[in-house]
């Protein structure tokens, strides 16, 4: 068991095994152990090399060789010197307030959209997976609406809602709602029939079954769904901000392009990548916290 | 070789609720009378159980042996209340579980199933799993239930594992926990559906001894499905050989091996004679099942 290797535990007689099983490294010991394991594995080096390779290719194409198709695209040296410059020539860097305003606006929209989509999608999906009747009512509608690309909703959203904020949030919510609902429903359907039967044998009533079997049993799927859903939310948010918006990273990208300043455009793209990655890490961390059983079982399988 | 088998807990601390003054068990008597079950998938009738009758005495270990796909699980599910029967009736301690006008028995904690592939809730620790029954029935508050669960797990030699999740322990421990989870409810009947099927022979023998130990102490009625003849004779008071689908009784043999039993019984002459007596019938059905290409559905 990987978690048992506390530094300094030395050799332990077999009779101590149960006590050792109970003590897990925590705090600094755990951190130290994880860092050591991680540095001993090829993962961090491969990652570093991968990033280097990526940037090198990028640099080579745009600035090193200056190939014909790439001359209009700012290379990494230009981007990073602008990004971290106190006085950016094209208006956007980590020292400008405007940069953070765009990020904040997009993050706020994502937070609202993701919260709404989860608050509606999870209960909806649970019900659809649990009750055959409800499934029969609602599934065909979901399946008809789901394939409609989110951009096709843009005109409708603008017609329905006033201002810049609501239509954009509506579009992001809608996109992630479908993902969350569908995954939650599949999660419930994936639960082994034996768990329902076991709960019934042990005296669980309908509501107990829902709370103690349906919800926890569907959690792994729900969180897989939420990770996809937050990605989809970003995706559709940016699309919506490009069409209708006043601020936000999507707006930054498109308006920079329209104004012919390509550096902020790429900065916006890269920022989007990092922020999106960060939000999906948060979702995964919450999921792992709620599903210790799942994490531990996977850990024992060496994953 | 002397394997120390940890004691499995009995139903509560209050002695033997299942025993009367003379010491014989009084609860968990099952009558299966003329039960028929026909599945109707896609309009094609599948007769899984055909006019099957058997009497299981209170405190008996009743072993059902038959080839895969013959309808054993179907019969067990009818007793547990997982699905309806087409005709016939089933009684538990003289009370109608299912029969005319009531095709499906109610599920209840008096008949607890231990499943073929195990059904501990993976999202609860072993202790929470064991505590679940009394908690959800409102018999004990959460803290008391967990406390009792830890106590019973400790009696079963699993005291150090109460805080572990099922995914973290061996299949043998998981299966043993599942039996503790059943026993904490003080059930009338344990229904076991090939619980040791996927286990290696050595783990299986430990499971057998620990189940025997549970039985010797609790005298709970056990309805045990298997296709392993040795297992059936070693554990059972009575072995029912059933036919290939549709399931009905083919042969019943009383097991005369004395209790308490241990693994040494497996090499006794008496055991060998019993195997010889039953083997023919089982083999005949196995051939029939093979030729009809019967497949089981979990
Ligand atoms: N839900 C079902 N619908 C239709 N047929 C079923 C169903 N469950 C089981 N059967 C059929 O009934 C027969 C008996 O199944 P089962 O009771 O699972 O057998 P066993 O437990 O003896 O292996 C098999 O032929 C199986 O295909
Ligand atoms: Mg079966």
Could you name the key traits of this structure?
heterodimer, A: 303 residues, mainly alpha, MetI-like fold, 2 domains, B: 298 residues, alpha/beta, Rossmann fold, six-stranded mixed beta sheet, four-stranded antiparallel beta sheet, 7 helices, globular, binds adenosine-5'-diphosphate, binds magnesium ion
Outline the secondary-structure elements:
The complex is a heterodimer of chains A (303) and B (298).
Chain A: H1 17-22, H2 27-40, H3 43-64, H4 76-83, H5 97-130, H6 132-145, H7 154-160, H8 165-189, H9 193-201, H10 206-243, H11 249-258, H12 262-290, H13 292-300
Chain B: E1 30-39, E2 46-56, E3 61-65, H1 72-80, E4 87-92, E5 95-98, E6 111-114, H2 126-136, H3 142-155, H4 171-183, E7 189-193, H5 201-218, E8 221-226, H6 229-235, E9 238-242, E10 249-254, H7 269-292
Helix pairs in contact in B: 2-3, 2-4, 6-7
The structure holds adenosine-5'-diphosphate (ADP) and magnesium ion.
């Amino acid at each position: 068991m990987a978690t048992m290797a506390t530094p300094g535990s030395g050799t332990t007689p077999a009779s101590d095994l149960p006590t050792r099983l109970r003590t897990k490294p925590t705090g600094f010991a755990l951190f130290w152990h994880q860092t050591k394991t991680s540095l001993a594995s090829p993962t961090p080096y491969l990652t570093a090399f991968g990033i280097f390779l990526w940037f090198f290719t990028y640099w080579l194409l745009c600035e090193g060789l200056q190939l014909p198709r790439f001359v209009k695209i700012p290379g990494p040296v230009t981007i990073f010197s602008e990004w971290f410059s106190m006085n950016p020539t094209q208006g956007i860097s980590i020292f400008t307030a405007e940069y953070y305003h765009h990020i904040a606006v997009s993050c706020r929209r994502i937070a609202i959209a993701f919260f709404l989509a989860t608050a509606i999608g999870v209960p909806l999906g649970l019900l659809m997976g649990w009750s055959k009747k409800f499934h029969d009512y609602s599934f065909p509608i979901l399946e008809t609406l789901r394939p409609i690309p989110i951009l096709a909703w843009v005109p409708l959203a603008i017609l329905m809602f006033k201002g810049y904020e609501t239509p954009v949030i509506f579009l992001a919510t809608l996109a992630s709602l479908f993902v969350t609902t569908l995954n939650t429903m599949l999660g419930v359907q994936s639960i082994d029939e034996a768990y329902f039967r076991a709960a019934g044998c042990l005296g669980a009533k309908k509501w107990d079954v829902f709370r103690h079997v349906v919800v926890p049993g569907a959690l792994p799927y729900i969180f897989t769904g939420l990770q996809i859903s937050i990605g989809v939310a970003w995706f559709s948010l940016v699309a919506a901000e490009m069409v209708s918006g006043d601020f936000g990273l999507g707006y930054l990208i498109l308006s920079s392009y329209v104004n012919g300043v390509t550096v902020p455009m790429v900065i916006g793209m890269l920022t989007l990548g990092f922020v999106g990655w960060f939000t999906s890490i948060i979702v995964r961390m919450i999921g792992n916290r709620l599903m210790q059983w799942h994490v531990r079982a996977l850990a024992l399988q060496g994953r | 070789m002397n394997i120390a088998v940890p004691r499995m807990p009995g139903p509560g601390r209050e002695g033997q609720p299942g025993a009367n003054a003379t010491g014989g068990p009084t609860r968990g008597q099952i009558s299966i009378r003329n039960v028929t079950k026909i599945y109707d998938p896609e309009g094609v009738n599948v007769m899984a159980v055909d006019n099957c009758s058997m009497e299981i005495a209170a405190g008996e270990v009743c072993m059902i042996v038959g080839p895969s796909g013959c309808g054993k699980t179907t019969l067990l599910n009818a007793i547990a209340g997982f699905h309806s029967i087409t005709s016939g009736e089933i009684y538990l301690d003289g009370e109608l579980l299912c029969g005319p006008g009531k095709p499906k028995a109610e599920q209840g904690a008096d008949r607890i199933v231990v499943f073929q592939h195990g059904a501990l809730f993976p999202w609860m620790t072993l202790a929470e799993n064991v505590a679940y029954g009394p908690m959800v029935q409102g018999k004990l508050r959460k803290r008391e239930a967990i406390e009792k669960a830890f106590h019973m797990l400790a009696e079963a030699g699993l005291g150090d594992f109460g805080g572990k999740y099922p995914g973290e322990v061996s299949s043998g421990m998981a299966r043993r926990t599942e039996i503790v989870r059943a026993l904490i409810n003080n059930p009338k009947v344990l229904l076991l559906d090939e619980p040791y099927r996927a286990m290696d022979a050595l783990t299986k023998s430990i499971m057998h001894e620990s189940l025997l130990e549970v039985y010797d102490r609790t005298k709970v009625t056990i309805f045990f499905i298997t296709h392993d003849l040795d297992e059936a004779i070693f554990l059972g008071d009575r072995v029912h050989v059933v036919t290939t689908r549709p399931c009905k009784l083919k042969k019943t043999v009383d097991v005369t091996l004395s209790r308490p039993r241990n693994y040494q019984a497996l090499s006794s002459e008496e055991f060998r004679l019993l195997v010889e007596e039953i083997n023919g019938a089982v083999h005949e059905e196995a051939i029939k099942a093979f030729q009809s290409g019967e497949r089981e559905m979990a």
